[in-house]
Amino acid sequence: MTVERIEKAFLILSAAMLIAFLGALFYSSVAMGMHLPGREGEIVPTDVRNTPPFDQPGVHEVGAGEYEVVVLGRAWGFEPSEIRIPAGSRVTFISTATDVIHGFHVEGTRMNAMLIPGQITRLTYEFDEPGEHLIICHEYCGIGHHLMYGRLIVEEGS
Ligand code: CUA
User: Fold this and answer.
1) Which backbone phi and psi does 139 adopt, to 5 degrees?
2) Is the pLDDT score of 80 beyond 90?
3) What is the mean pLDDT of the chain?
4) Whole-model pTM above 0.85?
């Protein structure tokens, strides 16, 4: 093979990879519905605990099988640290952080967000299967980062 042919082969390979990656990106965003959580508003980051709904962290039933869970991320835990909802619920998590940036990932789901002081993050998910999910912080937030976790328990249908 001449140098030109090798170069051409690499150019074609690079172009094919770019097209494949763009295709995968397009597929995941359009066909699988993956996207970044939207910015759902701003609050004063130093006054989170006095700002509704964050003055009442916890699980709130808002309709038949519909729940809102207000979650606060802080160094180094989630409030509430344990969330219990019945199977078959549609749950909207409304969350923010009180101090520094934290992560919010619910194991076994596609829920993965950043909790940013002053920004409200909203995620909705349907929990059909009973079980237990670990909630972890996936943004390094200081010396206790690895201790920051919570639990989400989906209880047998009601
Ligand atoms: Cu919070 Cu890492």
Assistant:
1) -115, 130
2) yes
3) 92
4) no
Place of tokens 């009442």: 56
Residue type at position 79: E
Burial annotation 130-145 (CB, 10 A radius, 16+ → b, else e): eeebebbbebebeeeb
Eight-state DSSP code of residue 8: H
Question: Ligand 1: residues within 6 Å at CB?
Answer: 73, 76, 102-103, 137, 139-141, 145, 148
Q: How far apart are the first and last CA of the chain?
A: 70
**Does residue 28 carry a pLDDT above 80?**
yes
Question: For residues 134 and 151, is the Cβ–Cβ distance under 8 A?
Answer: yes
Protein residue with its CA nearest to atom 1 in ligand 1: 102
Structure tokens that stand for 141 in this block: 């937030």
Give the position, in ligand 1's atom list, of the atom nearest the Cα of 102.
Answer: 1
Q: Which residue has the tokens 């937030």?
A: 141
Q: How far apart are CA 51 and CA 54, in angstroms?
A: 6
Give bridge partners of residue 105 from the DSSP assignment: 112, 136
